[in-house]
Amino acid sequence: MLRKFFASRGGIISIGAFIGVFAPLLQKWGNPGNMGICVACFERDIAGALGLHRATVVQYMRPEIIGFILGALIAAYLFKEFRPRAGSAPIVRFVLGAFAMIGALVFLGCPWRAMLRLAGGDWNSIFGILGLIGGIWVGTLFLRGGYNLGRAQETHTAVGWILPLIMMGFLALMLLYPQIPGEPKSGVLFYSLKGPGAMHAPLLISLGVGLAVGVLAQRSRFCTMGAFRDLILFRQTHLFSGIVALVVFAFISNLFLKQFHPGFANQPVAHTLSLWNFGGMVLAGLAFTLAGGCPGRQLFLAGEGDGDAAVFVLGMIVGAGFAHNFGLASSPQGVGPHGIAAVIIGLVVCLFIGFTMRKKVA
Amino acid sequence: MSDIVDARGLSCPQPVLMTMGKIKKVKKGEIAILVDTDTSKENVSRAATSQGWKVKDVKPDGTGYRITVVKK
What we know:
The complex is a heterodimer of chains A (about 350) and B (about 70).
Chain A: H1 2-7, H2 9-28, H3 39-49, H4 63-78, E1 85-86, H5 90-107, H6 111-119, H7 124-144, E2 153-154, H8 157-176, E3 185-186, E4 189-190, H9 203-220, H10 224-234, H11 238-256, H12 274-291, H13 295-303, H14 307-325, H15 339-356
Antiparallel strand pairs in A: 1-2, 3-4
Chain B: E1 3-6, H1 14-26, E2 29-35, H2 38-50, E3 54-61, E4 64-71
Helix pairs in contact in B: 1-2
């Protein structure tokens, strides 16, 4: 009964609405502006907390991400859907994850945050969303042309547990080395004293919402990339109704919370270079499509035992390290010194992957 | 004898693409689709239904499912 509901349109709309309400609330409770939830930004903050990059304003072990994966793990076990599998071109998924992150950080947000920025009145996000759709559209051309990364194989249960265990380890580190007010480091973990990394909801609230989203999204297969892809490829509106619900409910919630500030200038954690808001998300959208899911969906898949999605997640975290160490990530002042070059290189890499990996599956 | 689509181990949206391809090719009759995840099971069933096919039955098959769809 419950299983049927989540597979229905009502189910996907419910999860969209849930995220639409709780993301603005997380912002109210402390998360950065229009960033109640952002998978790319939060994985970037995790990379910072671990010291994989040393951008001091974006360092925090975001419990939401940990919750997403563990919530999906719990749901997968509750509903007997945990299926350990791996082996579908993991190295390619790692590289796609890294470039997806770089593209998202040129725009400053994953598709979830693009929707949340729109719902908060940040019109720069429109260019990002158009870029996302453009990138997904290019990806569907490859899919129509026979692109695929080959079959995954069934594997040991423990393989599916690796990323959830890593996340449990991260949570343990956070409890072992909690933030000390005024200190940039606690034990092995880095913490931001200012900037978006210093803005966060209380740990238990972040973790709780993360777990709930993880459970619901695993059940409903919520995917922001799939929403546009299925619309373009099959004229199917199932997943799309989920992101429409997200935007509508986030907009209403922002109105209630007085967090709706329409305009282009002075938007939180955003820049106004439309071309690169667009270009960054073309890269991200294409990489997500070639990898089969948006960054959120990759977390939920990783939670239900998909080792290849787990590799994509690690690729994103490492990509965030590169993005900040190499000056690829944007900031409110504009794109990073090498951000444009990185987008171009990323697009070339994605095209290479798309054109060369189209062997028919046996 | 039904046509078989083996989409096991393939990630989204390959199972749906393969099913749609087969549906376009055979136009009517019976198709069996092998998938390995619940997501693929739902997606394939939804796609076939949207093309006017009926899901005849879904049986566990190994660690996945065998979905049979028909159109008269």
